[in-house]
User: Fold this.
Amino acid sequence: MLGTALRAQEGFTLIEAMITVTLLAVLAALAIPSFESSIVRSKVRKTTELIAQMISMSQSEALRRNVKMYLTVITGDICIGSAPAQCDVRREPLISGMNVTAPNLILSPFYGVPTPAPAVFTVSYSGVTHTVSVNRLGIIIVREEP
Assistant:
């Protein structure tokens, strides 16, 4: 009996496994709200960028076609058209649940100058707010509100 070696233990004990699972649960509980917050910020940023791109595109179309272009937010979509509330040039869907307040923007063929000026679009979702504004010169400014 003295010559037999003791067998080494392999694997985890129940206590070690429970501690590991508990630590993982605590880390997940801390990370999930931060992850959800970054998803909300990402959605607002994406919508804000879409609005800025659509303003720029409507300015370009007004210059290219030498006619007024209209940028309108209509029930979950943002549209560029040759007349108010028309979507004959381009239509893009907005992210579901996004709150967008926007003026009906008219872009002149004269350098893409907007009416009304300045025009401010506000995008908000779950407490995160961004604004897109177009000044009298047609310059687009994107801001994240605190």
